[in-house]
Design a protein that fits this description.
This protein is of the alpha/beta class. A seven-stranded mixed β-sheet has the order 1-6-7-8-9-10-11, with helices on both faces. Strands 14-19-18-15-17-16 form a six-stranded parallel β-sheet, sandwiched between helices. It has a two-stranded antiparallel ribbon with strand order 2-3.
């Protein structure tokens, strides 16, 4: 019943167990929904829905289909499918969707990007993407013929798997997690690193996800909206607590946005027990609060224009570095509301409270391959001035350079900037904090004095005073990330998100 309800909502196709009428607001009711896939169309040897893949290629690249002889079963099609499967294994499904594959004399596109506003041709092309959902997906070639509750595909390439549980049958999301950990062999092709962007455990109250299955050590993170300043999901008078997942997150545009701007396989350097450093690949997928935060900030910044301040409370350990990285590279692409052809910001400046620029923030931004070429970092004032004046798209620098940055931005009145301030509150103490106050106190005399309530001031206080002393530069927007929730801090920011 639960499985049927999700598929009914995504596809608009009545299911034997759930054929209720759709509300006008349901995604499928807009006639822009998913195709319902057939389990028999899934090729377990290459982990692809061949029917949906061929349908997309025939609709978008018929010449490539003819050249590669893909229309009929045979050795040519088999060679192409194995080529595609090998590229997904090597690069991950996200990179293959974004960049396509070359095979023989032909480069094959496997996905059409989201359109920019007003681009009718791109909108038409995006509409040719085939988003599909398959019930009871038999993924294994072994004798058990085990099946997942649901698989979601884009143009025949798998991106998400689902195990669904219903509390009415005395099962919860915890049972779905155990099922993934114990019954889903991580060596199966579909579960290998990068093959899908996430594996979702869902019941009627909670959602959790795991970017990469590793057997019993598979770690599932929450993908809940939060409720009463805590975990879980709010009551839903119109349906299940978790229906935001398929009604909001899994819409074609939303899932496409995740594939294009959030999900990615990255390399991280880690030190082993022997002390040797090695690179480890890791699948990245956003948590719900990260997705909601970035989208809310982009929406507000687009509607408000340049020259506003925003405060984001983002607790330690909740993925703040990724949130800042996702926000930075999407602010680069943000277009003006009154002129969709013009970028809203010339440069995005990320300010960290650490002196060493090889910080988690810098590493996180650099590892996203689609922003590497537009990224620069510097503590050197001359290099920083060059970056600002030449319009380097994403710049990472330290809080000690904040007074210098504000002076430079004031001189560059014709250019627009977004300032992303990491850990605005600064949890550091002792000599380090004292040095920071000194560095920031140039035109903010008194920034290092105690607050009127007797509390030791923070870097955030000094930054706020500097901003106020510059009379709020009209050519800059400020996005301050803090782990504190004190009302007096929030009150200083005009547009809390």
């Amino acid at each position: 019943w639960f499985e049927a309800r999700v598929v009914r909502s995504l596809t608009g196709v009545p299911q034997p167990e759930y054929s209720h009428e759709l509300a006008p607001t349901d995604f499928a009711a807009t006639h822009n929904g998913y195709v319902q896939g057939k389990p028999t169309d899934y090729n377990r040897d290459v982990a692809l829905d061949v029917a949906q893949l061929l349908a997309f290629l025939q609709a978008t690249q018929p010449k490539a289909v003819d050249t590669l002889e893909l229309a009929a079963e045979g050795i040519k099609r088999t060679q192409f499918l194995h080529r595609l499967q090998g590229e997904i294994t090597k690069r991950g499904v996200v990179d293959v969707l974004r960049k396509g594959v070359s095979h023989g004399p032909v480069h094959v596109d496997l996905y059409k990007l989201l359109p920019t506003p007003g681009n009718a041709s791109a909108a038409e092309n995006f509409g040719k993407n085939v988003f599909s959902v398959t019930r009871q997906l038999r993924y294994s070639n072994d004798e058990s013929q085990r099946a997942l509750d649901l698989g979601v595909f884009i143009n025949g390439l798998p991106v998400l798997t689902f195990e669904l549980k219903n509390s009415l049958t005395k099962q919860t999301v915890a049972d779905a997690i155990v099922q993934y950990q114990t019954d889903r062999n991580p060596h199966e092709l579909l579960f290998q690193l990068g093959r899908c962007v996430a594996h979702m455990a869902v019941d009627d109250a909670e959602v959790r996800f795991c970017p990469h299955l590793t057997g019993k050590t598979s770690w599932f993170l929450p993908f809940n909206q939060g409720w009463n300043s805590g975990a879980g999901n709010p009551p839903n008078p119109h349906g299940l607590k978790t229906d935001y997942l398929w009604k909001q997150v899994l819409t074609r545009e939303s899932l496409a946005n995740i594939i294009e701007s959030y999900a990615q396989v990255v390399e991280e350097e880690e030190t082993g027990a022997s002390g040797k450093k090695r690179k480890k690949r890791k699948q990245i997928f956003p948590r719900f609060h990260q997705l909601r935060t970035v989208r809310a900030l982009l929406r507000r910044a687009h509607n408000d224009g340049v020259g506003k301040r925003y405060l984001i409370q983002h607790s330690a350990g909740s993925g703040k570095s990724n949130t800042i990285a996702w926000l930075a590279h999407q602010l680069v692409e943000l277009r003006r509301k009154d002129d969709p052809m013009t970028a809203q910001f010339d440069s995005i400046i990320v300010i960290t409270d650490r002196r060493a620029l090889d910080t988690q923030i810098a590493r996180t931004i650099k590892r996203y391959d689609h922003v590497a070429s537009i990224f620069g970092h510097s503590e050197d004032a001359a290099e920083l001035r060059t970056f600002l004046r030449k319009g380097k798209k994403i710049i990472v620098t330290t809080v000690q350079k904040f007074p210098f940055i504000l002076d430079e931005l004031g001189d560059l009145g014709s250019k627009k900037f977004a300032l992303l301030i990491d850990e605005a509150h600064s949890s550091q103490g002792g000599k380090t904090t004292a040095k920071m106050h000194m560095a920031l106190s140039g035109s903010a005399a008194g920034a290092a004095d105690d607050d009127e309530d007797g509390a030791q001031p923070s870097v955030e206080d000094a930054i706020n005073q500097l901003i106020e002393s510059r009379k709020m530069l009209p050519n800059a927007s400020y996005f301050a990330f803090t782990a504190r929730s004190e009302e007096r801090r929030v009150g200083r920011v005009s547009s809390p998100v």
